[in-house]
Amino acid sequence: MTSGSTPPASAAVRSVTVRVPAKVNVQLAVGPPRPDGFHDLANVFLAVGLYDDVTATEADGLRVTVSGADAAAVPTDTSNLAARAAQLLAARHGREPNVHLHIAKDIPVAGGMAGGSADGAGALLACDELWGTRTDPEELLGICAELGSDVPFSLVGGAALGRGRGERLTTLSVKGPLYWVFAVADGGLSTPEVYGEFDRLAAGRTVPEPDPSPAVLDALGSGDPADLAAALGAIDGGNDLQPAALSLRPALAATLAAGTAAGALAALVSGSGPTCAFLAADESAAADIAAALAASGTCRKARVAQAPAPGAAVVG
Ligand code: C5P
Predict the structure, then answer these.
(1) Please, are residues 277 and 268 in contact by the beta-carbon 8 Å criterion?
(2) pLDDT given for residue 6 in this prediction
(3) Residue 177, preceding bond cis, omega within 30 degrees?
């Protein structure tokens, strides 16, 4: 496999582009470690309007290229979920994974926003379309679950409750637009390390089975950001991985404080971090919070995004 930074150029070769959203975990309730090392979750996923575009182009072998500001941080070997997705889909249909996958990356890398998962889901859909393999939607979801716990949600988007390790989805009702601001940190955090730190911090106490907060689900359904913020406040912010992320990256406390001081209704680490997510009252509050965060020196950049966003979809 080779790496590079240019998208496929030839107009004569067939290609398919799929757009896939990032996610924020509005609530992430984490249970004790299971025998297989994973943790059972009550994972309230919300897709947000930051996107990666994955283009699948006919090729003689499998190769991955990436463009975008953080392209250098994205692997182009088979540790990239997009490459794994092509391999799994090809194997299901008894064919070679001959495809050039180009990822135009806009989702923060290793940021707790499911950027890698998005690329897996995007590549799966793009290859299915390019190869004309017409995989059954349930089977596509099964391949997503094999790729990673967050990948099925990247395919469906919107809002969903993820049980099991996060892969068993139930669609949730959500009313938008909800405005979020994301503070992108320097460098990423490793998801397994954050879960490991969660276990270390939980040692000696009983971790309850994870359950979604009915108030959070109600507030998502009504689309009132103040209600959602109040519901998150009542469950200590909503993200059980947040103390672990803060323990590994104490500087995130200053980021959360800067967003709160700028008027965010709720401030939380996104998933395993280190991206921090801020819920805004409306569009203009979101712009103010983003400007304040960018000026605060507590993050690398700030992005505004609306939710809910649609799941993976063919756009070209
Ligand atoms: O499923 P995925 O490959 O995204 O998981 C990455 C790592 O995160 C796992 O190897 C595991 O350490 C941790 N994880 C977990 N419980 C989950 C999801 C992920 O412990 N429900």
Answers:
(1) yes
(2) 55
(3) yes
Coil, helix or strand at residue 301: strand
Answer whether residue 4 shows pLDDT above 60: no
Ligand 1: residue whose CA is nearest its atom 20 = 38
Q: Is 140 left (phi over 0), alpha (psi -120 to 50) or beta?
A: alpha
Enumerate helices (H) and strands (E) in the chain, giving the number of each. Answer: 10, 11
Segment 45-69 shows an average pLDDT of: 97
> Which pTM was predicted?
0.95
Measured CA to CA, the distance from residue 109 to residue 183 in angstroms comes to 13
Q: Averaged over 263-288, what is the pLDDT?
A: 98
Which residues lie below 8 Å from residue 175, measured CB to CB, with a gap of 6+? Answer: 220, 221, 222, 223
- Residues 176-190: tens digit of each pLDDT: 999 999 999 998 899
Identify the DSSP state of 262. Answer: T
Residue nearest to atom 15 of ligand 1 (CA): 38
Pocket (CB within 6 angstroms of ligand 1)? 37-39, 41, 148-150, 165-166, 191-192, 195
CB 186 within 8 A of CB 275: no
Helix/strand/coil for 273: coil
Centre of ligand 1 from the C-alpha of residue 149, in Å:
7
From the list 116, 103, 97, the residue with the least C-alpha distance to 71 is 103
Write down the H helix ranges in 177-282.
Answer: 191-202, 214-222, 225-233, 242-248, 252-261
Best of 153, 167, 191, 201 for a ligand 1 pocket test (most atoms within 8 Å of beta carbon)? 191
| Confidence band for 215, pLDDT divided at 50, 70 and 90 | very high
DSSP state of 7: -
CA dihedral (275, 278, 282, 286) positive or negative: negative
The rounded distance, in Å, linking the Cα atoms of 172 and 220 is: 8
At 156, the amino acid letter reads V
